[in-house]
Amino acid sequence: MFEIIIIISIVCGTGVAIALTAILTDHKKERLKLQIEMLEKEAQLEQIRLESYQLETEKMRMELEHSKQLLLETRKD
User: Fold this and answer.
1) How many whole angstroms separate alpha carbon 41 and alpha carbon 33?
2) Distance CA 50, CA 44 (A)
3) What is the pTM of this model?
4) HSE, side-chain direction, 13 A CA sphere, residue 9
5) pLDDT reported for residue 76
6) How many angstroms separate the CA atoms of 10 and 36, rounded?
7) Cα 6 vs. chain centroid, distance in angstroms?
8) DSSP 8-state assignment for residue 1
9) CA nearest 25: which of 13, 17, 35, 36?
10) Any residues with CB less than 8 A from the CB of 17 and at least 6 apart, and which?
């Protein structure tokens, strides 16, 4: 009788351990998926920032060139 109780306790304990392991594994997978998503979004945001910086730099270069042209025309007169 005692042996049966020990066997049942071991089987039930193992089942609980397996269930907890599965829950923890799923939780870790979900966290990793969220971290990957977050990193992808950050990479996209950084790409947008870089494109914006390049456009702004080009705009400023064109404005400077235009100002130089106006200044040269003013000096000629």
Assistant:
1) 12
2) 10
3) 0.60
4) 6
5) 79
6) 38
7) 49
8) -
9) 17
10) none
Give pLDDT tens digits for 3-62: 655 555 565 666 666 666 777 788 899 999 999 999 999 999 999 999 999 999 999 999
d(CA 56, CA 62): 10
Rg, C-alpha atoms of the chain: 33
Amino acid at 12: C
Token reading at 41: 């979004």
Rounded CA-CA distance 66/10 in Å is 83
User: What's CA 18's distance to the chain center, in Å?
Assistant: 31
Show the DSSP H helices in the chain as ranges.
2-76
Separation CA 38–CA 12 (nearest Å): 39
